[in-house]
Write a structure and sequence with these properties.
By secondary structure, this protein is an all-alpha fold. The protein is built from twelve helices and two strands; from the N terminus they run H-H-H-H-H-H-E-E-H-H-H-H-H-H. Strands 1-2 form a two-stranded antiparallel sheet. The longest helix is centred in the middle third of the chain and has 22 residues. The chain is globular.
């Protein structure tokens, strides 16, 4: 049963020029980090326990293509219809995670660097479409109207969050140059996953001195620890203990954190992994062998880290 809500003015959005610059910087960051990944790097675990870097590459390509589909059909796209139900965020997360899994499973066979190249081209093409229709409605969540510009903010945050995921998989940290713009974009484009004020005795102090990038990480279901260089040993150890894929299609959780964005979101574990850390399935071949990338990217994703 659909929820009916009255319309409200869109959330305040950052300056279009600043947001588009941050959007491009996110794409460039993904490409820059991905360019340094070798065979072992693509097999490395990301901060999402069940996602390897090569799967994240395929996911990024899917998200960029989805953005075009949603814009073509706005404000009545399948994404707009889902958000228009006004459902609880947890319900939206589960439905978007199933969509992510299906799209990744259907993705054409290609090496991960090819997915990154296709992602960048598609995402940049999307950026050229937005300025002329920036203030038009894209979708609505409950009483909040998200404009095309607001959706650009959600996508911008998605690119930077996944750049952080790829960086963490290589054992390095990541911090965008304009975190204030990215946080404003998240707020404008992700009203179903708003940043929450810190709890505790020092909440008031933190509210006055909050780090906008940490706010985005937290809103997406990530923590500062996941993006820190000190996580290198943990990720490397996990990669040594488990090989990249399973001969059977084991359940896994998904990315874009509570979720990054437009095409997905996913804070919270799926029913299969709630309350425990999922183990990584094993396989007898590494990337670059005769095991095709199509089979690698066909693994389902049940929870997204955004």
């Amino acid at each position: 049963m659909e929820h009916t809500h009255s319309r409200r003015l869109p959330a305040a959005e950052p300056d279009p020029g600043e947001l588009l610059a941050a959007y491009e910087a996110g794409i460039a960051a993904v490409c820059r980090i991905a360019a340094h990944l070798d065979q072992a790097g693509w097999a490395a675990q990301t901060p999402c326990p069940e996602w390897r870097a090569f799967e994240l590459a395929g996911h990024l390509r899917c998200v960029a293509d989805d953005l075009h589909e949603y814009l073509d059909a706005a404000p009545v796209s399948r994404y707009a219809r889902l958000m228009g139900t006004g459902a609880h965020p947890d319900s939206l997360i589960r439905k978007l995670a199933r969509q992510n899994a299906a799209e990744l499973a259907a993705l054409a066979d290609a090496p991960p660097d090819e997915h990154i190249e296709a992602f960048a081209a598609s995402a940049r093409r999307y950026a050229t479409r937005m300025p002329a229709i920036w203030d038009l409605p894209h979708h609505q969540y409950r009483d909040i109207v998200v404009t095309v510009g607001g959706m650009a903010g959600a996508a911008c945050a998605e690119w930077h969050l996944h750049a952080s995921d790829l960086a963490a998989a290589t054992g390095t940290g990541y911090r965008p140059a304009d975190p204030d713009v990215i946080l404003a974009g998240w707020v404008a484009g992700m009203p179903h996953l708003p940043p929450t004020a810190p709890a505790g005795r020092l909440a008031a102090w933190h509210s006055r001195h909050a780090d906008p990038w940490q706010a985005v990480l937290a809103a997406s279901g990530r923590t500062a620890v996941l993006a820190a260089p000190g996580r290198r040993a943990v990720l490397a150890q996990a990669s040594r203990r488990a090989s990249p894929a399973s001969s059977g299609r084991g359940a896994s959780s998904a990315s874009s954190g509570r979720g990054a964005s437009s095409a997905s979101s996913g804070r919270g574990a799926s029913p299969a992994t709630s309350g425990r850390r999922a183990t990584l399935p094993s396989a007898d071949r590494e990337p670059g062998s005769d095991r095709s990338w199509a089979r690698w990217t066909a693994r389902p994703i049940l929870r997204r880290k955004g």
